Amino acid sequence: VSTQSTGGLIKQVVHWSPFVQVYKKKYPWVQLAGHNGAFKPCDNGTILKKLTPKEFTCLTDILIENDVKKRRAMKKTAMEKKLKEGCMEEIRQKLLEKAKLQSFLEKQRKRLAQEKVYRSYLEGVVEISTEFNELRDILRKHDTLSINLEDLFTKSTAMLDELDRLKQMGFGGQTKPVF
To answer: In the beta sheet, which residues pair with residue 178?
Structure first.
């Protein structure tokens, strides 16, 4: 095939486009009347229609619109990928934090178990002996103070949550707390 004949073929393809419509979703048909010189037969039994400037404008608009949609979809996919990677990193960090907290909790449980041994020994000595009455009072006072400390932690957490809620509502911390 020579370059001259290839150029002529490209020129024909650019100026001529397939023109077939479907009638009642079953029968392909072509309206040839009223378009003198706009149609010519093709090799494989189809009919080509001469491309008009209006059709060319519509075709370029469709191609540009499709390109914009493709770029938008690629950008959305990239954003979703970044978001997924960020979520995966956050999950990894949370799992590491959870493992650290679990090891800390286990250490604290061991320490509590060791300290319970001393307390139970001290309580046993106090019960058997009549000489250590003041130790009995000290242990009761320790229990009372421990319960009060837990109660204070609970109340302070609730108050901080209420303060955060008020700040989010827009009060900004200028309000005085109601006790």
So the answer is: none
